[in-house]
Amino acid sequence: MKSAIYYTCLLIGFFVTIACSQIHEEKNASHPNIVVIYLDDLGYGDLGAYGATAIETPNMDKLALAGLKFTNGYASSSTCTPSRYALLTGVYPWRNKEAKILPGTAPLLIDTQQQTLPNVLKRAGYHTGVVGKWHLGLGSGYVDWNKHISPGPNEIGFDYSFIMAATQDRVPTVYIENGTVVGTDAHDPIEVDYNQNFAGEPTGLDNPELLRMRWHHGHNNSIVNGIPRIGFMKGGEKAKWIDENMADTFLVKAQNYIKENKKQPFFLYYALHQPHVPRTPHPRFAGLSGMGPRGDVIVEADWCIGQLMETLADEGLLENTLIISSSDNGPVVNDGYYDEAVELLGDHKPSGTLRGGKYSLYEAGTRVPFIVQWKGKITPGISDALVCQMDLLASLASLVGIDVENSDSQNMIEVLLGNSKKGRTNVVLEASSRTALRQGDWVMIPPYSGPQTNKQVNIELGNSKEYQLYNLTDDISQQQNLAKIQPDKLHEMIEAYRAIRGQ
Ligand code: NG6
Ligand code: CA
Question: Which positions fall inside the Sulfatase N-terminal domain (predicted)?
């Protein structure tokens, strides 16, 4: 008969083997907390740290001053859903034809079996949470908003989620915590439809007398809190958010998440809703910027970030937290409501010296503020290396010592930490299914039909019947098309572009 000692040894051996394989997988691992602060439609020129003088953003500037400010940091797309898809999956959004601006009723865009940033970090022992804007779809077809909603963030790797389904201007205008709408009422069920209104319900189109914010284009379906939205919604009165409280609501959830999960490494994806429309600053911030609600909500977002940083400091976590701040796409001034953003803009240039903005294939569509901070680990400074948000998956996986499947995400961890200046060689940029190539300091935009300018938002889209070629070193504002003057360079860029896009 085998002795108890024999079995004890066997058991110890078993655990040692497991521990070793864990160590094997997490080679050279470091496990700081990771916080991704993601703004919505914040432009390259919207922060003091990136040259803005007409608006004050002291907290984001502090992040930049204490960290590494990237001047060539890109979102993967000039709109939200595709950028967020790439951020979380490490896959170019143009590989998935569904990765475009989604309605509030769209099914989950990410496959639950897909490799994602949160599920990779979970493999390294992280607790993972998302607070804020989701806009990656929910459910797998029809969603009953009164029941548990799945799949969603919790099925693609987030242990905790407190989100809005799509955007602040899209229904349903409710918060969803771990798959359940907050404040449901069996006597007042929530119904959502993007095709037709519910009988007898007022709309922005038919009932202008009920509006406190007028629509400029789109945004004339259901009215919630006096603001006309995209899509129709009925019921759920108790569940509806109060727009002016949204910033505080998300901030408190993010702060609580940090406090509750600080005992283990955590990954927090804090996706703010500012300065996307409708811009509804809390009364504390209304009028502060002198630039109308767009400026005010940037000031509000900056304050929220300051508060989050204070929480990290108060909890003694700053030295052990890697913080990455960026924006999902470039700026837009009028995105569908009359909110005085155009009239009160003054000298402020949300795109800075870049051409275009949200929806555009020009630089301001995708080149965004991109700041990485890790107190005591990253030497403050400026990096001109080419990096893309899509690279966070491979980079952070490498930091925490996890091997990942090949994807479009490149391991840029040494660049993000400031130890190397060797960024990507190139990146394909996307704008509403159109794509362009940045390689080195050159940008090539293939010919596209369609209007040069989206007149409603007053943004140049990048469409032209001709090839466009720009050298960003001499011409950051993309004013001089060199396609005809530098045919060899154009040819080289087209070849490189085709090699990636497979066309
Ligand atoms: C557009 C909306 C715009 C905004 C955008 C999504 C209209 C006319 N315009 O369709 O207001 O909601 O979608 O923005 O409806 S994003 O930042 O989430 O991509
Ligand atoms: Ca956006």
Answer: 32-402
Edge to edge, the sheet with strand 442-445 lists 426-431, 434-439, 442-445, 468-471
ipTM of this complex prediction, to 2 decimal places: 0.99
Tokens representing residue 467 in the block: 């090839």
- Of 78, 82, 103, nearest to 94 by C-alpha is 82
* 11 has pLDDT over 90: no
Contact 45, 71 (CB under 8 A): no
Q: Helix, strand, coil proportions of the chain in percent (round to 5)?
A: 30, 20, 50
Ligand 1 atom nearest to 335, measured from its CA: 11
Residue 338 has pLDDT above 80, yes or no: yes
pLDDT band with cut points at 50, 70 and 90 for residue 64: very high
Kindly state if the Cβ of 217 falls inside 6 Å of ligand 1: yes
CA–CA distances in Å: residue 38 to residues 85, 177, 270, 284, 394:
13, 19, 6, 22, 18
Report pLDDT for 503: 73
Catalytic residue numbers read 80, 135
> Could you tell me the two tokens for 488?
């060899």
Bond from prior residue into 151 cis (ω within 30 degrees of 0): yes
